Structures are given as structure tokens and as C-alpha cells.
């Protein structure tokens, strides 16, 4: 379970980094719709090949709901990434873990004392990895914080819903496919409405840019799908509270990628936050 949850954080972190880079060249809605469409095509092939259609049932509605909410959360997140530093936005969006953790606790899940300590340390580390610049002279714009809060709430709802969407591996394929189809429908509708209101779906001369970005868009979409799959499996195998916290360490990956590729400055407090996140991971793994 620990390994699956950590793989989830790695995949989500890389997908967020890739999506954030793409939104600096393409409209956020276009990135969401294109990446999720490519992922839906691949998942559709997997569903047909595995006969996952036979797993359709009442739980599929959880995936439908997650698919309706997901694009709005991703849009908010990508807009926030385009407006503010990745190393700050991504950790703040990780407060989404409060939603599924709260649901699990309400449903009766009770982690041990060491796991509670690990969750607290990891959560503090994730926040610290992004929060120090909030009070600095070049503070984060209010619009960025609003988009980040919307993303956190939406991501938290998706985490809680997708964990309940299936009980088998083939059922998970179908649930992820249904989620992606709803992502495309919801995001596509929003893109159409925005275009009708005068917002171009592509920048000037952007069709060639979109074609050139297809490999990156496919990576973002498929990494997000794979992360959802490993998270759902981790939540099924072990306590959801632990799986959620470990999976939510992805901002550390995003921050490190931004540091390595974009040379975004990592403050001492942010580095300490990454260390706390690692310490929290160790406590959760041993608890």
C-alpha cells in the first residue's frame, strides 16, 4: 500500500509539473480537455480488451461524479500554476487531503497513534514546502489563492469519490474510463462556452503548437490516470487515511521538478518542508 501511494505522489507530481508548463503556452481548458481526451482513448481500448464493461454497476456513479468535478478542479489548478510559482501553488492545493481523510474518519476509520503523528508531520511538511513566500514582499496574488482553494476542494472530492468507484481491478479500468469521459464532456462544454464568449481555445497560430504538444499532453493525461489507479488500489489495500496522506506528497515532486527544470528558488523553509514530508512518510510506513 505504501509503495502504491508513493508511486501515486510521483505520478501526480510529474503530471502537475507537465500540466503547469503546458498552460504557459496553451489555455488551461485546452490542456485539460486535450490531455483527458487522449487518456480516455487509451482507457477505452483497455476497457474493450479486458471486458471491463461487465463490471458496470451502481458504484460507477462515484466515477461519474468524480469526472464531473475533476475538470473544474484541474482548470482552477492549472490557472493557479500559470499565475503563481509551482513550488507554492502545488503544496497549497495538497490541502485537498483533508476532504477524504475527514470522510474516512466519519466512516469509522481509526489510524494508530504513530500514523496520526505521521499524517500531522507530513501535512505540515507539504504546507511548509510551499507556504513561506505567502508572507513575503512578493506575496501570492489573491486570484491565485482563489484558484488554488477551488482546486483543493475539487481534488479532495475526487479523491473521496474515486476510492469508492470500484472493488475490482477491471472495475477500476471501467471507473477510470467513465471518469475520463465525464472529464472530457464537462471540460469540453466549458471550453465551448468560453469560445462562444470570445476566449480563443488556442493562441494565435496555436494549432501547430497543439500538435507539437500532443506527446506532452498524452503524458499528462496518462500519468494522471495511472496516479488515480494506484491511489484507488492503495486506498483499497490499506487505511484510506494513510493512502491519502502518502499520495498527497506530490507537491514535493512538483517543487523539486520546478527547481531542477525551471530553476525556481527553493527557500530553506521549503527544503525543511520536504524533509518533514519524508519524515512523515517514514512514520506512516512504520505505523
From TrEMBL:
Gene3D superfamilies: 1.10.3730.20. Pfam families: EamA (PF00892). One of its GO terms (cellular component) is membrane. The keyword Isomerase does not apply. The chain crosses the membrane at residues 33-53, 60-81, 87-106, 113-132, 144-163, 170-193, 213-234, 241-261, 267-285. Residues 2-129, 150-285 form the EamA domain. InterPro entries: EamA_dom (IPR000620), EmrE-like (IPR037185). Keywords: Membrane, Transmembrane, Transmembrane helix. Belongs to the EamA transporter family. This is EamA domain-containing protein. The lineage of its organism: Bacteria, Bacillati, Actinomycetota, Actinomycetes, Kitasatosporales.
